[in-house]
C-alpha cells in the first residue's frame, strides 16, 4: 500500500507536525518549538486566557490595518493582500491572536529562524494545536506577505493545524483564495471538537463558562476530561446555538433567499464574522479522513457534524467535545494507518439520504453518514456546491464577452487615431461631439459600460470565482478599457457641466468601474495605492482649468503645485506608454491651456520639449 498524501503533505509529515504541535501544547512557557530535518517545523503553543481569545465584545475581531507586520515588508504604501479589491475593504482577524503573534515576532528569534530556513532552501511548516494553530495561520500569512514575491524562487510554506479556532473573516478567506495561498493551509478537526467552533459564538453568550473550559483544555496530560459535565454541557449548548444562527444565515444566502426579513433579523442578532479558510480534514472516527475545500461547506459542517442525535446525548457529546480536542495524536495514528481518505467535492451532486446514493457515491455517502449529516445538512452542502458551480458559470459567461469588449475597444482606438489626424485628440473631439463618429463612439462607450458594470457588480457581490481577480489577462484588459474609455466619461461629465451640480469628477462623479479596475491593476502589480491614476489625467486638467479661469488675472500661484505635480506624472505616463502623445496635439485643450502659463514655469517644465515637437 502506498503512503498517504493529502495535498502536498505526506502522512509521515502529518504525524511529525501533530507530534510537535502537541509538544508545544505541553510547553506553553516557550514562544515556539523548532524541529529540523529535511523540513523546518515551527510549532506554537496555545493560550488559555479568555483575554487572549476575546479582547473586546462581541467577537474580538479587528481590521488587519492595525498590524503593520501583515503589510509587505519595507513598503507601507502598498496595500496588504488581505483585502477585498472590489469593495476596497480590509480583512478582519481575531485581535487577541494577532496581538500574540506580533508579540512572538517582536520578542523572539522567529524571524531569524525563518530567514535561516529560507537561506538553506528548506520547506517551512508552521503548526500548532488549539489557539497555537491560530498563531500558525497568522505566521504563515505573514511569511506569504513578506517573502513570497513574484519571480522569486522560494519553497512554499505549509500551515498544518489541529483543533484550531477560526481566525479571520470572509474577506480573509476570499483573499487567500484569490492570491492562490489557500492550498498552503490544512486544518484537522475532530468531529465533536468544540474549539474550532468557539469563535462562532460571542463573548456575552459563552463568557461565563469559557474561562473554566479553557483551564480544562490547557491540561498537559492526554487523559479524558471528567467531572465538569455541567460546565461542558452549558458551554456546548451556547456555542452550538450561535453556530446554528451563523450556519442558517449563510445557508439562506447560498440558497438565494432574498427575503428582507433575513436582513432584518440579522441586524438584531449578533452573528460571528469568522469564517473557515484553507482545506479542512474532518476526523469522524472509524479511521477516516474527510477532506473539504469549499469554505461555505466547511462552515455548514462545523455546525451539522457536531449535532446531537437526541437530547439524551447532551452530556456525553458535551464531554466528548472537550475530550476530542486532546485526541488528535491517537485518532490520526489510526487514520494514517488505514489511509481511508474521502474527498468531498462536486457537492452539488451529493446524495440527500443513504438510500439515494448512486453506486459511485457509496464512499461519499458513508462519509456523510459518519459525520451524522441530516437531509437538511446535505441540502446545505449541495447549496454550497451549486453556489461554487454558479460562480464558474458566471466566469465562463464573462470570458465569452471578452471578444465583444476587444471589438469595442478596437472601435474606440480607431476613433482615437482618426481624431489625431485632425490635430485634435479624441478627448476634445468627444467633448465637442459635432460629428457622426463622435455619436458612434458614444454608443460604443455605453455598450462597454454595460458590460463592465455587470462584471464589477458581480465581483462586488462575490459572484465570480476568487481567482478571477488575479487573472493577468483580465487585469490587462481592464486596464486597457480604463485608459481608453475613462477619458470619454470625463469629457461627457464636463461637457454636460455635471461638476456644477455634483462636484468634481474625481471626488463625486467617478464611476465604481474605474475605481475598481485601477485598484485591480495596483494590487496585481503590487503598486502603491493610487499610483495608477493615468486614466484620470483629463479630470485633473479640467479642474485646473476651472481654477485658473476663476482666479485673479495672473494668479498662477493658486495652481502651481498641482500643475507641477501633473506635469511630472504626465511625463512618467508618456515615457511608460500609459498615455498617448495626442494630449500634446495643437488642438488639445491641455496644450492650449499650457501655452498660456507663465514663461518662467514653462521653461523648466519636463514636458516642454514634447509640446514644442507637436505644435
Care to describe what's here?
The chain is α/β, with parallel strands linked by helices. Strands 3-4-9-10-12-14-15-16 form an eight-stranded mixed β-sheet, with helices on both faces. It has a two-stranded antiparallel sheet with strand order 1-2. Strands 5-8 form a two-stranded antiparallel sheet.
Write the layout of secondary structure elements.
Layout: E1 5-6, E2 9-10, H1 11-25, E3 33-36, E4 39-44, H2 50-53, E5 61-63, E6 83-84, E7 89-90, E8 92-94, H3 95-107, H4 110-119, E9 123-129, H5 131-147, E10 158-162, E11 168-169, H6 170-178, E12 185-190, H7 203-217, H8 229-254, H9 260-268, E13 274-275, E14 279-283, E15 288-292, H10 295-304, H11 314-323, H12 328-338, E16 340-343, H13 362-370, H14 375-399, H15 402-421, H16 426-432, H17 436-460, H18 472-495, H19 498-502, H20 505-509, H21 512-524, H22 537-550, H23 560-575, H24 589-594, H25 599-602, H26 608-614
Parallel strand pairs: 4-9, 9-10, 10-12, 12-14, 15-16
Antiparallel strand pairs: 1-2, 3-4, 5-8, 6-7, 11-13, 14-15
Helix pairs in contact: 1-12, 3-5, 7-8, 8-10, 8-11, 10-14, 15-17, 15-18, 16-18, 18-21, 18-22, 22-23
GO cellular component, one term: nucleus
Pfam families: EDS1_EP, Lipase_3
GO biological process, one term: lipid metabolic process
Quick synopsis:
The protein is α/β, with parallel strands linked by helices. Helices cover 53% and strands 10% of the residues.
Task: Provide keyphrases for this structure.
alpha/beta, 16 strands, 10% strand, elongated
Helix fraction by DSSP (H/I, runs of at least 4): 40-55%
Q: Profile the largest sheet.
A: 8 strands, mixed
Structural class: alpha/beta
Broad shape: elongated
What is the mean predicted local confidence, pLDDT? 89
End-to-end Cα distance: 79 Å
- Assembly form of the protein: single chain
Total DSSP E strands: 16
Please compute the radius of gyration using only Cα atoms: 29 Å
Number of distinct helices: 26
Strand content: 5-15%
Which stretches are poorly predicted, pLDDT < 50 over at least 5 residues?
none
User: How are the strands of the biggest sheet laid out side by side?
Assistant: 3-4-9-10-12-14-15-16
Amino acid at each position: 500500500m502506498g503512503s498517504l498524501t493529502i495535498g502536498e503533505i505526506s502522512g509521515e509529515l502529518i504525524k511529525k507536525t501533530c507530534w510537535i504541535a502537541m509538544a508545544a501544547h505541553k510547553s506553553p512557557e516557550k514562544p515556539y518549538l523548532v524541529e529540523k530535518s529535511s523540513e523546518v517545523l515551527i510549532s506554537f503553543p496555545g493560550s488559555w486566557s479568555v483575554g487572549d481569545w476575546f479582547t473586546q465584545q462581541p467577537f474580538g475581531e479587528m481590521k488587519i490595518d492595525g498590524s503593520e507586520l501583515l503589510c509587505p515588508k519595507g513598503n507601507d504604501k502598498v496595500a496588504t493582500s488581505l483585502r477585498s479589491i472590489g469593495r476596497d475593504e480590509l480583512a478582519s482577524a481575531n485581535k487577541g491572536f494577532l496581538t500574540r503573534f506580533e508579540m512572538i515576532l517582536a520578542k523572539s528569534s522567529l524571524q531569524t529562524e525563518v530567514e535561516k530556513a529560507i537561506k538553506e532552501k528548506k520547506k517551512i511548516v508552521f503548526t500548532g494545536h488549539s489557539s497555537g494553530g491560530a498563531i500558525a495561520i497568522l505566521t504563515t500569512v505573514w511569511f506569504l506577505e513578506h517573502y513570497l514575491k513574484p519571480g522569486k524562487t522560494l519553497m512554499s510554506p505549509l500551515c498544518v493545524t489541529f483543533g484550531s479556532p477560526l481566525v479571520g473573516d470572509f474577506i480573509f478567506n476570499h483573499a487567500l483564495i484569490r492570491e492562490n495561498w489557500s492550498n498552503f493551509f490544512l486544518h484537522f478537526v475532530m468531529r465533536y471538537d468544540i474549539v474550532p467552533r468557539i469563535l462562532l459564538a460571542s463573548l456575552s453568550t459563552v463568557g461565563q463558562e469559557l474561562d473554566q473550559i479553557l483551564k480544562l483544555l490547557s491540561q498537559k496530560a492526554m487523559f479524558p476530561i471528567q467531572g465538569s459535565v455541567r460546565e461542558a454541557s452549558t458551554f456546548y449548548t451556547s456555542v452550538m446555538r450561535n453556530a446554528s444562527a451563523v450556519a442558517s444565515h449563510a445557508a439562506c444566502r447560498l440558497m438565494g433567499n432574498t427575503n428582507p426579513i433575513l436582513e432584518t433579523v440579522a441586524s438584531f442578532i449578533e452573528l460571528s464574522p469568522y469564517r473557515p479558510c484553507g482545506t479542512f480534514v474532518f476526523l469522524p472516527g472509524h479511521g477516516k479522513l474527510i477532506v473539504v475545500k469549499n469554505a461555505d461547506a466547511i462552515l455548514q459542517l462545523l455546525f451539522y457534524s457536531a449535532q446531537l442525535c437526541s437530547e439524551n446525548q447532551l452530556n456525553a457529546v458535551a464531554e466528548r467535545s472537550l475530550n476530542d480536542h486532546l485526541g488528535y495524536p491517537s485518532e490520526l495514528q489510526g487514520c494514517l494507518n488505514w489511509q481511508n481518505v474521502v474527498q468531498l467535492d462536486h457537492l452539488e451532486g451529493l446524495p440527500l439520504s443513504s438510500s439515494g446514493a448512486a453506486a459511485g457515491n457509496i464512499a461519499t455517502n458513508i462519509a456523510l453518514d459518519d459525520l451524522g449529516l441530516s437531509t437538511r445538512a446535505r441540502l446545505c452542502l449541495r447549496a454550497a456546491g451549486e453556489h461554487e458551480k454558479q460562480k464558474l458559470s458566471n466566469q465562463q459567461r464573462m470570458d465569452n464577452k471578452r471578444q465583444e469588449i476587444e471589438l469595442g475597444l478596437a472601435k474606440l482606438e480607431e476613433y482615437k487615431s482618426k481624431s489625431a489626424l485632425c490635430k485634435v485628440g479624441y478627448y476634445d473631439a468627444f467633448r465637442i461631439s459635432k460629428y457622426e463618429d463622435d455619436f458612434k463612439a458614444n454608443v460604443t462607450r455605453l455598450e462597454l459600460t454595460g458590460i463592465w458594470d455587470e462584471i464589477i457588480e458581480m465581483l462586488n457581490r462575490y459572484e465570480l470565482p476568487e481567482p478571477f481577480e488575479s487573472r493577468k489577462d483580465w487585469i490587462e484588459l481592464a486596464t486597457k478599457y480604463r485608459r481608453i474609455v475613462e477619458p470619454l466619461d470625463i469629457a461627457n461629465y464636463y461637457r454636460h457641466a455635471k461638476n456644477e451640480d455634483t462636484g468634481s469628477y474625481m471626488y463625486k462623479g467617478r464611476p465604481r468601474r474605474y475605481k475598481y479596475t485601477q485598484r485591480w491593476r495596483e494590487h496585481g502589480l503590487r503598486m502603491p495605492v493610487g499610483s495608477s491614476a493615468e486614466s484620470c489625467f483629463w479630470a485633473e486638467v479640467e479642474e485646473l482649468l476651472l481654477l485658473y479661469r476663476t482666479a485673479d488675472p495672473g494668479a498662477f500661484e493658486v495652481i502651481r503645485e498641482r500643475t507641477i505635480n501633473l506635469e511630472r506624472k504626465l511625463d512618467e505616463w508618456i515615457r511608460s506608454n500609459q498615455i498617448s502623445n495626442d494630449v500634446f496635439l495643437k488642438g488639445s485643450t491641455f496644450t492650449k491651456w499650457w501655452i498660456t502659463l507663465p514663461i518662467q514655469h514653462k521653461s523648466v517644465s519636463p514636458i516642454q520639449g514634447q509640446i514644442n515637437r507637436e505644435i
